[in-house]
Structures are given as structure tokens and as C-alpha cells.
Write a structure and sequence with these properties.
alpha/beta, globular, six-stranded antiparallel sheet, about 15% strand
Length: about 550
């Protein structure tokens, strides 16, 4: 691997190596530019990945450490913010694309122009994207073919138009998929093969899925998941132009007297402060850590945070709501093997007008997946200890399915990240504070999706079907969106349509923070499509000496 000196002025310094950072690094290095990627986590190889549930799910083996980098939460400005693990992500080379579920839905065409076509709900700052689906479609296709996505084109009536089929057939249908198809047919809905960023067959030197069952929250031990660590980082390194630096904790983007970024300050693995010089900086740290870094990069010319003349940095925080239904079946469904999802339902992508609810989303059925999680998800009313609890454990694992509703979340100006004035991390850097309250429309939507999820389980002939209630914010989220939104108007956005900061010519933001809307449940594919597009724009600007 190429190794640059910190005194070398590289063409691009990229902060973060996840879904976006891996793509940008690969594309820019392939275009001949010198690239340094700073990643705070370690660099694992596939053989490091374990099926140890306790280590992964309960000791946070591959995720960020809240003891070292805490967050705080409050529902409104007048509340005292309390420590809360809001932002949850994989901390390793490859980022959260290493342990994601790998659902890869394209956003529907309307997603990019909802404000114009559907209006703006009271209390929301929803707006049109500065790009359309047509602008992004070639890059959605690039994600599918360059990263490796399995699916079946033309089956889902709610999928937007595409220019090319999937490179691989869908993964095999599982029992949860059979049951979802049965339920959807009864309700007059449509179940379709789920597009998954998991290889259904060998592809570009990588192994196909071996159906181990450890997908949700677990990195892939055979490299079949198409996250950055498998699909992008190796190609970036092979160019001889990309230096990946794990254990690099970035604290500040430096600005020169001329108003241009000069490089990045970071702590190396020995907590020594380093400075990497760069002609341009690309922040791909996720929708929480990106605004945190830019807030902590404030200076005399940018007192409210770097690239924040609009005041929109950190604001309009969105995630994706999830509703959860539980169905217990008389027979075994054994969904704990193979990929998490094999079929999806997208009929409620736009909720019917008679509901009076703005937004929409989709459903899948999935199992508890792992024994330890199953043991901790005892259905309501069941024994939680003793011999009866033990007797029911197998049934919870083998006979239980969850109906998961994946939905939109409206952007609201007051829902925001800023810096907690009283709390710092283990390196002495101020941490994030989230201020968030649910919009009334989103509460109504979650209730609708919860009720329909229970109805799906009943239609699948579950012995017992339950709506486990709405899942609101103030809980750990892995989808952090909208906090440095893109737009044509510098007064109401942080970056332009090319992901370049309005305020700083050689600073770019490429991750979920640039989203204008939340999407309908699964943002990672869109993050990667935006990253491919942004890399094209950055390469063109650099070659034209416009950075």
C-alpha cells in the first residue's frame, strides 16, 4: 500500500472509509489522484470476524465506544441533556457498510421532488433535492455492478425505472419470504425479491453467500457483503495511489488565511497529534460525526462551525423510523439462516390520501436471527425466567418472525445536532448533543405501519400476532441523515449539488448528512450512488484546476 508523509500535500484527504468514503477513495485513486483516508477504527480482515454474539452485540466489538465518545440527548431546548448512545456505527475500515443488513432499495422518483409534488407539511423543512432520480440513476446502476448487488429487475411494480438489470440473480427465497408473499397476496399487495448487497454467486473474485445466518450487525467472514471493506477499499489500495490510515481520530479541518482548507488535524493510534496536508478535504464521517467535525473546526471566519454560514449545519436531523410486529407460528420458520431478508413489500411507498399521512415506506419479514437476541426478545406475556422460559426459547428462535416497517421521517429545523457545552470525549474534543421531538405526522405514520404490520402477520397465519408499538427517537440509530443537506440555495443548505461546501471551495461532504429527505427505509445504496456521482464531479473539478 502506498504511504504518504503528512508533509506531502496530497490531492484529497478523505475522513471516513465507510459506504461513501470507500467509494470516493476508490474512484479518485483510480482517476490518478493521491489520496489519504483517515479512519478512526482498526483495519480488520475477514478472518477477524466472529460469530460471538456477546462480543459483537453486547460488548460492541466492532462499533463506536460510548465511554470514549459519548453523546447526549434532550427532547427540547429547555430540557437538560442526558448521556445517551444516539449515534451508533461500525468503527473500522469500511465503516457501517461492514455490518449492515444489506437491503439495497433505490429511492423512488418522487423522493427527490416531494415538496413540489406532495407539498410541505406544517412544521417541516422538507424540500426538493437539487438533483433528480434521472441524475442519480446511472450511479445507482454503478453501485449494483461495481459493488455487487443481487436482485431481479422488473418484478417490483414500485421500483423506479432502471437502465440495466442486476448483475446477479436474487438470493434464494427463505421461509420468511414465502410467508410474506402469502400475506401480501391476501392483502392485495405485492411481495418482490429483495435487492441485497450480498453476492448470490461468486463475483469479481469474491465468494458468494454461504448462508451462515450472521448478517445483521455482523461483518461478513467470507466477504460476500458488498460494503466498502470488500468491494471498494481493496481496489483503492491496488492503484498505488491510496493510503489508508486506521486508528486516526480526526479532530479538526484546518483553514488557511486564503479561506481554503489546508489539511486535517488528527490523533494517531498513539494519541499523537498529526496534520495531513491536502489540496482538498472530503468529509465522509456519517450524519452525526460529520457535523461534529465541522462544528469543532470553527475559526474566526467561521465562528459557528466550518461551512455553516447558512446555520443549517447539524439541523434537519432525520433517521428512518422502524415499526415492529411479532408473529409466533405453529411451525418452524428457521429464519436464522441465510441473509436477513429475501422478500420485500413496497405497496405503501406513498401512503393513500385517505390516511392523511405524509410519507411512506416498505416492509419485510425477518427472524430474530441469533439465539442470544431471541432469548432477550421474549414475547409479551411469556415467562421471562425459569423452566417455562427455557422451554420457549427454541420457539422464539425458530417459530417467530418480525414484521419490520421501514419508513420516512420528516426533516424539522429544530431537530438537530450541536456540541454539548459541558461534555468532552477521551481526547478532549466536545461531543454531540441531539435535540429531537417526533413530528406528529411521523407518529401517525408509525401507528399506521404498526397496525398494518400486525395485519400482515395475521394474513401469514401466525398463531399470535402483536404490534409492539411505535419506535420513536431518543434511541440508538444507525441511519443519521440530513445534517449537512445539499441544495442550490446557500442560505438553506450546506453543500451544493456537487457536494462542495458553499462556503469553502475545496471542502466536500459526501455521506448521509447531505440527504434532503430521509428516503423510505434504506439509505446506504443512495449514499453510495451519491458518492460515485460526487467522485466524478470532484475528479472533473480537480482536472480543470477548479478546486
Amino acid at each position: 500500500m502506498k504511504q504518504y508523509k503528512t508533509t506531502d500535500e496530497v490531492d484529497f484527504c478523505i475522513v471516513g472509509s465507510g459506504a461513501a468514503g470507500g467509494v470516493v477513495a476508490r474512484q479518485l485513486a483510480r482517476a490518478g489522484f493521491s489520496v489519504v483516508v483517515l479512519e478512526q477504527g482498526p483495519w480488520h480482515v475477514n478472518s477477524d470476524f466472529t460469530h460471538d454474539e456477546f462480543f459483537v452485540n453486547f460488548r460492541g466489538g466492532f462499533t463506536n465506544d460510548f465511554h470514549k465518545v459519548p453523546n447526549t440527548f434532550r427532547a427540547k431546548d429547555s430540557d437538560a441533556a442526558k448521556p445517551s448512545p444516539i449515534a451508533q456505527y461500525a468503527m473500522m475500515v469500511g465503516g457501517s457498510s461492514s455490518h449492515f443488513t444489506a437491503n439495497y432499495w433505490r429511492f423512488p422518483e418522487i423522493e427527490f421532488q416531494q415538496a413540489t409534488q406532495l407539498g410541505v407539511p406544517a412544521g417541516s423543512t422538507i424540500a426538493d433535492w437539487p438533483i433528480t432520480y434521472a441524475d442519480l440513476e446511472p450511479y445507482y446502476t454503478m453501485v449494483e455492478w461495481e459493488c455487487g448487488v443481487s436482485g431481479e429487475a422488473g418484478h417490483n411494480p414500485f421500483e423506479p425505472w432502471r437502465s440495466k438489470p442486476f448483475p446477479m440473480p436474487p438470493l434464494p427465497i427463505k421461509s420468511e419470504g414465502v410467508l410474506l408473499e402469502k400475506a401480501a397476496k391476501k392483502m392485495g399487495w405485492h411481495a418482490s425479491p429483495a435487492p441485497m448487497a450480498i453476492l448470490s454467486q461468486p463475483y469479481r473474485g469474491r465468494s458468494g453467500c454461504v448462508a451462515c445466518g450472521f448478517c445483521f450487525g455482523f461483518p461478513c467472514e467470507v466477504g460476500a457483503k458488498s460494503g466498502s471493506i470488500n468491494a471498494m477499499i481493496p481496489d483503492a489500495v491496488k492503484t498505488g495511489k491510496c493510503d489508508i490510515r486506521p486508528g486516526s481520530y480526526v479532530r479538526k479541518v484546518e483553514l488557511g488565511a486564503n479561506g481554503r482548507v489546508t489539511g486535517v488535524k488528527y490523533f494517531d493510534g498513539k494519541k499523537r497529534e498529526q496534520f495531513q496536508r491536502a489540496k482538498a478535504v472530503v468529509v465522509c464521517a456519517n450524519g452525526a460525526e460529520t457535523p461534529r467535525l465541522l462544528f469543532n473546526s470553527a475559526n474566526t471566519s467561521h465562528p459557528n462551525g466550518l461551512a455553516n454560514s447558512s446555520g443549517y449545519l447539524g439541523r434537519n436531523f432525520m433517521s428512518n423510523y422502524n415499526t415492529v410486529g411479532m408473529g409466533i407460528f405453529a411451525h418452524e420458520v428457521n429464519g436464522c439462516k441465510g441473509q436477513v431478508v429475501s422478500r420485500i413489500v413496497h405497496d405503501p411507498m406513498i401512503l393513500p390520501a385517505d390516511t392523511g399521512i405524509y410519507g411512506g415506506g416498505g416492509y419485510d419479514f425477518r427472524a430474530m436471527m441469533t439465539p442470544m437476541n431471541a432469548a432477550l426478545q421474549t414475547p409479551p406475556g411469556w415467562p421471562r425466567w425459569g423452566s417455562e422460559w427455557k422451554k420457549n426459547l427454541r420457539k422464539v428462535l425458530s417459530n417467530t418472525l418480525m414484521a419490520i416497517g421501514h419508513t420516512t421521517q420528516l426533516p424539522v429545523y429544530t431537530n438537530r445536532f450541536d456540541l454539548d457545552p459541558d461534555l468532552k470525549d477521551a481526547w478532549g474534543v466536545p461531543v454531540l448533543r441531539l435535540t429531537f421531538a417526533d413530528h406528529e405526522n411521523d407518529v401517525a405514520m408509525m401507528k399506521w405501519f404498526g397496525a398494518k404490520g400486525k395485519e400482515l402477520l395475521e394474513a401469514a397465519e401466525a398463531e399470535q400476532a402483536m404490534d409492539l408499538g411505535i419506535v420513536s427517537q431518543g434511541y440508538p440509530t444507525v441511519h443519521m441523515l440530513g445534517t449537512a443537506r445539499m441544495g442550490n440555495d446557500a442560505k438553506t443548505s450546506v453543500v451544493n449539488a456537487d457536494h462542495r461546501a458553499h462556503d469553502v471551495k475545496n471542502l466536500f461532504v459526501v455521506d448521509g448528512s447531505s440527504f434532503v429527505t430521509s428516503g423510505r427505509g434504506q439509505p446506504t445504496m443512495t449514499i453510495q450512488a451519491l458518492a460515485f456521482r460526487a467522485a466524478d464531479r470532484m475528479a472533473a473539478l480537480a482536472k480543470a484546476r477548479e478546486i
